Structure formats: C-alpha cells, structure tokens
Amino acid sequence: MPIRRRHSRVLTVLLGIATIARYAAAAAPATEPSPSPVQLPDAVRATVTQHLPDGKITGFEHHVEDRRHLFFVDVKRANGDDVTLLASGRGQYLGLVEEDEDEDDVFIEQATAPAAVKAAVAKYFGKPEVDCLFMEVDGERFIYCAEQTTGKKTRWASFTLQGGLTEEEEEVAVADLPAAVKDAVAKAHPTGKIESASLVKPREPEKPHYSMDVIERGKTWTLTATPEGRIDSNEAADEDIAGSTTKPG
Fold this sequence. Notes:
This protein has 249 residues and is of the alpha+beta class. The chain folds into two domains: 7-169, Roll (Nuclear Transport Factor 2, Chain: A); 173-240, Roll (Nuclear Transport Factor 2, Chain: A), CATH 3.10.450. Helix content is 16%, strand content 39%. It has four helices and 13 strands. The chain has a nine-stranded antiparallel β-sheet, with helices on both faces. A four-stranded antiparallel β-sheet has the order 1-2-3-4. The radius of gyration is 20 Å and the shape is elongated.
C-alpha cells in the first residue's frame, strides 16, 4: 500500500481499547478547554523543563484515556518554533507530537520518542527510521506502533514505553489467505470482497490471527479469524459505525 490504518488497531478500538485523538473532541470526553499554564501539574512541568529547557509553556490540553492522564503541552522554543510535548500525568516523557492530517492517531516525531522506544524500533526494523510512529493507550499502557513499508508489503510492530515488543503484524496478499479463512469470510459476507488482510502475531498467551477489511454493499467491515477459519469478530469499520450494527459471524 502503504496504509495508515492498521487492521489490529481498528480491532482494538472496536473492542474498547481507547485510542488518543489529539484534535477530535469526541475521542476526548475528559478534555479541559484551554487551561492556564499555571494549572499544569508540577511533574509535567518538570518534564517540559528537562526536555525543552529553552522553551516557554503557552498552553496545554488534558485528556484522560483508560484512566491514564495525558498532557499535550504547547511550548514556544527560543528559535521561535512551536512544538507540542506529550507527557503522562506522572510526568513520563512520551515524545513530541507530529502534526498530521489524520485526527484518529497521535503521531510522534521519531527522533523525539523515548529512548527505549527508539532503541526497540531500530533493533526490530534494522534501522532507526520507519515510515511513521504513533502512540495509543492500551488498557493503562502506553503503546507505540511503528509502521514500515518495503516494496509492496507493510508491517507493523508495537512496543511498550519500556521498549518491550507486544505485537507484530504483516500485510498478507488476499490470495495467500488460508482457504478456511476465505471460506469463513465468504459465508459471513456472501457478496463482500476482501480488500486487505494482515497476519497479527501478539505476544503469548494470545494466538496469531488474521485481520481483514471486507467491503459489502458499500460498507466496510473489519473481521478477525483464526488460521482454521473461526471468525472471532465481525464489526463495522470506524467510518461505518454510525447507524450500523454488529453482523453475526
């Protein structure tokens, strides 16, 4: 492709694992509107001072996701640049936010990611730079997902704040899907067409599974299935959630 929207990320959102939306109010019900910089917690302020000693705090936004407090702190640097530093409520440094048109993800400037995350990405992909790096909240953990496209194949790897690998995902050609998986999708969506697929390999004890986007009658569905063809989820994709319901597998 390349693509921005990971199959497993869509699945985790549908299963209730919150994704931070930097600029979408609907995804941040606990946001405080334009608070004064003096209201910033001391731990967060100390993190800003440590990582941007030449900066002046001009404002911030406070989000709460899965009980984790997130602070998007706007800072003007001595050279005139305006940047946004992301920190947890405990003052954990999470990186500088990269401006992006995609409002459903929080993209992090790779060079500014936490050291453990940068090291893990470089080790996994064999080089420090990837196509993009975004962050989401999984339960109470901060998860960084790196995306890399080589040739016509895209793969993803997710890491904890400490650099531990939590999940691998690789794009799979529809023709290469197991027959049992394709048969199961055809049964669930008789007139549908599989648009894209990937193989997701989470850490144990979870098992590998396939994730697919299926288009049927103008609607997009995200399905997950075991290699043996058992469909575990069959949900309308993000853009089709409004006004639609879960379809039985």
